[in-house]
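hi! just following up on the protien thing from before. the input was this:
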Amino acid sequence: MGLLSNRVPKESLKPGDHIYSWRAAYIYAHHGIYIGDDKVIHFTRRGQEVGTGTIIDILLVSSGPARNVVPCTTCTPSEDGHGVVLSCLNCFLAGGVLYRFEYSVSPALFLAKARGGTCTLAVSDPSDVVVHRAKYLLDNGFGCYNVFKNNCEDFAIYCKTGLLVVDQGTMGQSGQAASIIGGPLAAVLSTPLRLVTTNAYGMVATAVTVYCVSRYAADIGMRKDVLKVSAEDLTRRLATGLLQVIEPQIPAAPSS
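and the predicted 3d structure came back as:
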């Protein structure tokens, strides 16, 4: 596996693999679960959505499968409008390159990857369990889409691990979300350290360290506020309102 990502050929895929492909000039990646026969189940913005109220809502516009002029005969549109869809592998990739998300990576490898959303310290469940969760959620939904707390990567990680964040006031499982939050957070937290060092290289090193620590602590494999939840129990909680996706509070930029 490379330090940036894990590019793989289509022939190497196995049912239950968590795959992804970069979108919008590598700004973010779209994730899904490969179930075999060139088919992918993934969570898109086509259902209900909790927006961020920021420019991010405009940038992240391609989480769904490619919209071809001639409809694909393989892909199945979501009739219930809950956002979980079945697509062929080609439509899922939308012309992008195929990568496989890695599980049970070492802390050293996790920290060596500068970009979140490519691997986790968490352990994956057996492939048949992963595929069952994905197919069950295809029929029953995964709640409201939310860029930070309930996105395509959160869906894929849940299918692979069955883990959910218990405290809905905190960030979801997504490594991409941790990267988006972690970068600005590192810059903010390292600012007071200008009193300790005025060296530019020292400030950069401090910011990188804070960023890596925040990513490590936010990884689903390290968090203590997670719970193993079956897909059946998850959809029951969503239906009864016991589990909700709350709009995240995005901190305002510090005044100069």
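The two ends are 42 Å apart (CA to CA).
Residues 47-57, 180-190, 246-256 have pLDDT under 50 and may be disordered.
cheers
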